[in-house]
Write a structure and sequence with these properties.
12 helices; Beta-Lactamase; elongated; alpha+beta; about 375 residues
């Protein structure tokens, strides 16, 4: 019996020895595997905030051994986590203190290695062990260095921004060329009207006798009309005096003749806007006024130009008969509105129309001041 008991004890000791050896073997295998991978593997005691296991990759990054890292405790994290990311790093640790066994905590943050170089990491962590009260005691985690990927993303973003900038620059140059070409064409037409047709009419007037008063009156009217058209094609006041003076003059000339009352409000910070923007706004208001005079049957018009930070708010409101729904839903169906939309498009502007039958029309436009050179 004693021999059997002794044999049983020997067997138990042998099994215990085998279990210890198996555990040590598994630990060695795990350690070898952990040191072979390029990622950072670690176990952290989150109650004491110290690393109790770290693999070779971590030691290489910070030039510290496992014991040195463990002995530093909380100071290790303060040292290596980028100052800008420490708040979210420790917030994520707090969330792990409330985590369930199957919860995986993910975080993207920066660290600083022993040479002062910044690395971007993506980290996944979960609870490894709990204390006797069920509170998380240890967490296990793996961190991948994604610095190269982040730098690639930043470079891609920089290239996209550069592409956008060049596209915007090209668009502004195209805009400037289009506006310059349009205004040059208008100047040529105005000169031809004034120098050729105007002079012919004036010469015809001189040849008329005193008895031909009716014909003289018609020619006088034609001469005035040619001058008016010539002036509208090349608004001298816009170039010399600026947008506010030119618009007020245009409103008076166009609306007083039609016996249409108007209010004009102009409030911008800059003394003069970019010349291209001034030309576009002048032409837009000119087109809208022409449409209103021809079609709206309005007795009152409000024109407002207001600057808010880097944007201009332009509006024209009338008390006329309103617009057709087809034109409102598709401004391109109306030639005048199509012209306005095209001009606004060159400035990256926004265009809205609000109108009801016999309730008038309100046209709102937002124009970025950086829409042209």
């Amino acid at each position: 019996m004693e021999k059997y008991k002794d044999a049983n004890i020997i067997g138990q000791n042998l099994n215990h020895k085998i279990l210890i050896e198996d555990f040590e073997l598994e630990s060695i295998v795990f350690s070898k595997i952990a040191d072979a991978v390029p990622d950072m593997l670690y176990v952290t005691d989150i109650q004491q905030m110290r690393k109790i296991y770290s693999n070779t990759r971590i030691h290489q990054l910070f030039k510290m051994g496992r014991k040195e890292i463990s002995d530093m405790g909380f100071r290790f994290f303060e040292k290596i986590v980028h100052p800008a990311d420490q708040h979210k790093f420790f917030e994520s640790i707090e969330s792990l203190r409330k985590a369930k066994d199957n919860d995986v905590n993910e975080l993207e943050y920066r660290i600083i290695d022993h040479e002062g170089k910044v690395h971007w990491l993506t980290t996944k962590r979960k609870v490894l062990k709990r204390d006797e009260y069920g509170a998380p005691l240890q967490i296990i985690g793996i961190s991948q260095d994604v610095t190269a990927q982040m730098e690639l993303n930043e470079e891609r973003q920089r290239l996209m921004e550069e592409q956008t900038r060049l596209k915007s620059l090209q668009q502004r140059r195209l805009f400037k060329a289009i506006i310059s070409a349009q205004e040059e064409e208008r100047r040529n037409i105005a000169e031809n009207l004034h120098n050729e047709i105007g002079q012919l009419l004036f010469a015809a007037q001189l040849k008329l006798g005193a008895s031909e008063a009716e014909s003289r009156a018609l020619i006088n009217a034609a001469i005035k009309k040619v001058r008016q058209i010539s002036f509208e094609l090349t608004p001298v006041l816009l170039n010399d005096m600026g947008l506010e003076v030119a618009l007020k003059d245009m409103l008076e000339r166009k609306l007083d003749v039609q016996q249409i009352d108007f209010n004009f409000s102009f409030n911008i910070k800059e003394k003069r806007l970019n010349s291209n923007i001034e030309v576009v706004i002048y032409r837009i208001i000119q087109e809208l006024l022409n449409n209103t005079i021809k079609h709206a049957e309005a007795s009152h018009i409000n024109v407002l130009i207001l600057q808010k930070e880097d944007e201009l708010y332009v509006s024209q409101t009338d008390n006329g008969k309103g617009m057709d729904n087809a034109v409102i839903s598709d401004p391109k169906k109306g030639f005048g509105l199509k012209s306005v939309v095209n001009r606004l498009h060159l400035l990256n502007g926004v265009f809205e129309v609000f109108s009801k039958p016999n309730k008038g029309t309100k046209i709102l436009m937002n124009i970025p001041l950086n829409g042209a050179e």
